[in-house]
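Tutorial handout. Part one gives the primary structure; part two gives the three-dimensional structure as tokens.
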Amino acid sequence: MDKIEEVLITLRRLIRATDLHSRQLVKTAGLTAPQLLLMQAIREHGQVTIGALAKEISLSQATVTTILDRLEKRGLVYRERSEEDKRKVHAYLTEKGMENIRDAPTPLQDHFVKQFRDLREWEQSMIISSLQRVALMMDAEHIDASPVLDVGDLDRKDGRKLPEEDDADEQENRDDH
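Part two.
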């Protein structure tokens, strides 16, 4: 096997590992990776604003709001206006949301982060440099990305719907007609 094939196979394995983990997460917890990370951030910070959540998980405020909309529809989170500053909205987990993330598998990037942190600094720098070069070679250096290992749009409504989402969609369709 030549070096080009080795690189392409390795890239494919990375993409495939991300896809398989994403599918497993949806299957076992009914959540996408961004949804799980957002819910974990809410749990860790308690009373937290949407802007602070967006900053914490490196997503835009608009993306976080869209994800929260979907989670709220499913009864996993709720939002309330701040008593002190009515311009601020805080996100909270429901009991159902707490149970959901308690039973969810560990996000793929958590495994990676643990192992990456154990590397020597020069090894970390080499990996970063190599991956940045690969992104450049694939004309992907200008693509906006967050530090979430997942496939597809971060604010997507996953194609593998949960039963309660199907019911909600059918109700919305009836309401639209």
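Part three, for discussion. Residues 3-29 form the longest helix (27 residues). The chain has one domain: 3-171.
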